[in-house]
């Protein structure tokens, strides 16, 4: 173990607000949504007024007076005036309002400049009341959580289902209240400055390659297969019934809103099952192996193909993200390699053996190697990680230890 940055984790709990508190949460979300859209519109007004669609102008022209950029600080200064003109906004905790202004800033800044990697987001959208579901407390006082109750500033004491305790030494830094299809949830961001970061200490020989697929979820280089659950496809019959109810009911009616809520609950149930499957599969892999190698897939590109529904149902991107995070926390290693030709090349001799997608068996005419197509790809993936810099450094360190002990 070595000293590193502060450890931050997030725990999510189910809230049990009273009927009055649930109405108040919805009211806060509605007010925050309206102000979010107003500030976003102010940003767009500045953007449209100050930009020019041409790169040149005549010698004689009239340039209007340009507005100052409504940045985070200038928009935050409008909040005291907002509380004067609209007194009901004074019932919302000030830091919650400031966090809403920050959301506008982050969203619009990513649209104009991009994130830390320079990747720009799409044009921000105005949110309907159904799409604005979360508000955040950027700071929480010590001792705000007592038993199965938490005190939220200017809101009150709310019951929560504390299905797992807060780890010793961790302090609550922020909390977010989220409205979902099946109720309200509280997400706590926890921090501990005394916990050191984990130094990678893995066995380079305990390595496997995994080939992700749609016939089976994954196949390891040792030939182990994890079946694909297809949670969404199994729920399609139920979804079809509920979605028909929506189409039969009048727009704006209470019965239509109930049917929409049923569909949302069913989709959440599918997402929860998929997430649980991903976590369990990642845990099983990291219990058996110290190093896991996978293809560096372009999931976004695959999700636009004719196999889009199956790719989304499998959730490869989410699984690989969970696998990488859990490996990092455990001091293990996950490596991404070039996916080109892993299914076509022979894992034994390296000769290219062209196969169409429906051909599920690999038969090499050169070395007579015969095995399942996905198993062959998994072995190729594992072999491509042999020259990885981290594995080389680990093997050199192990060899030096052996020499010193001798």
UniProtKB/TrEMBL annotation:
Q: Does the keyword DNA-binding apply?
A: yes
> Probable transposase IS891/IS1136/IS1341 domain: from which residue to which, for each copy?
197-305
Presence of the UniProt keyword DNA-binding in the record: yes
Q: Which domain of life is it from?
A: Bacteria
Domain Transposase putative helix-turn-helix positions: 7-49
Protein name (Swiss-Prot/TrEMBL): Transposase
**NCBIfam families xrefs:** guided_TnpB, IS200/IS605 family accessory protein TnpB-like domain
Cas12f1-like TNB domain boundaries: 316-381
Q: Which InterPro entries match?
A: Cas12f1-like_TNB (IPR010095), RNA-guided_DNA_endo/Transpos (IPR051399), Transposase (IPR001959), Transposase_put_HTH (IPR021027)
Task: Kindly state which keywords UniProt assigns to this record, in alphabetical order.
Answer: DNA recombination, DNA-binding, Metal-binding, Transposition, Zinc
Q: Name the protein family.
A: In the N-terminal section; belongs to the transposase 2 family. In the C-terminal section; belongs to the transposase 35 family.
């Amino acid at each position: 173990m070595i000293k590193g940055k502060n450890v931050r984790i997030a725990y999510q709990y189910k809230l049990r607000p009273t009927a009055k508190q649930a109405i108040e949460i919805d009211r806060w979300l509605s007010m925050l949504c309206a102000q979010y859209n107003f500030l976003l519109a102010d940003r767009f007004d500045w953007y449209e007024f100050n930009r020019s669609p041409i790169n040149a102008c005549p010698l004689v022209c009239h340039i209007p007076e340009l507005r100052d950029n409504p940045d985070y600080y200038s928009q935050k200064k409008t909040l005291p005036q907002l509380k004067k003109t609209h007194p009901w906004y004074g019932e919302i905790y000030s830091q919650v309002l400031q966090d809403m202004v920050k959301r506008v800033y982050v969203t619009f800044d990513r649209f104009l400049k991009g994130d830390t990697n320079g990747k720009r987001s799409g044009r921000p959208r105005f949110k309907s009341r159904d799409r604005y579901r979360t508000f955040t407390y950027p700071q929480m006082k010590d001792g705000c959580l007592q038993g199965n109750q938490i005190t939220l500033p200017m809101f009150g004491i709310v019951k929560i289902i504390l299905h797992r305790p807060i780890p010793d030494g961790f302090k609550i830094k922020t909390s977010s209240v989220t409205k979902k299809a099946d109720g309200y949830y509280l997400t706590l961001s926890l921090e501990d400055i005394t916990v050191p970061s984990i130094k990678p200490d893995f066995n380079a020989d305990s390595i496997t390659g995994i080939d992700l697929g749609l016939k089976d979820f994954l196949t390891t280089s040792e030939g182990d297969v994890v079946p694909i659950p297809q949670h969404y496809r199994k729920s399609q019959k139920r979804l079809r019934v509920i979605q028909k109810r929506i189409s039969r009911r009048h727009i704006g009616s209470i019965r239509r809103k109930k049917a929409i809520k049923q569909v949302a609950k069913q989709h959440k149930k599918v997402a929860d099952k998929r997430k649980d499957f991903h976590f369990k599969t990642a845990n099983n892999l990291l219990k058996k192996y110290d190093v896991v190698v996978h293809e560096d897939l372009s999931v976004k590109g695959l999700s636009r193909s004719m196999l889009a529904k199956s790719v989304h149902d499998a959730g490869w991107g989410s699984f690989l993200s969970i696998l990488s995070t859990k490996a990092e926390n455990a001091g293990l290693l996950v490596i991404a390699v070039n996916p080109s030709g892993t299914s076509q090349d022979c894992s034994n001799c390296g000769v290219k053996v062209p196969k169409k997608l429906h051909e599920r068996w690999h038969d090499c005419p050169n070395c007579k190697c015969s095995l399942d197509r996905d198993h062959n790809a998994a072995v190729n993936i594992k072999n491509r990680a042999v020259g990885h810099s981290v594995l080389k450094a680990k093997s050199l360190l192990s060899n030096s230890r052996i020499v010193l002990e001798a």
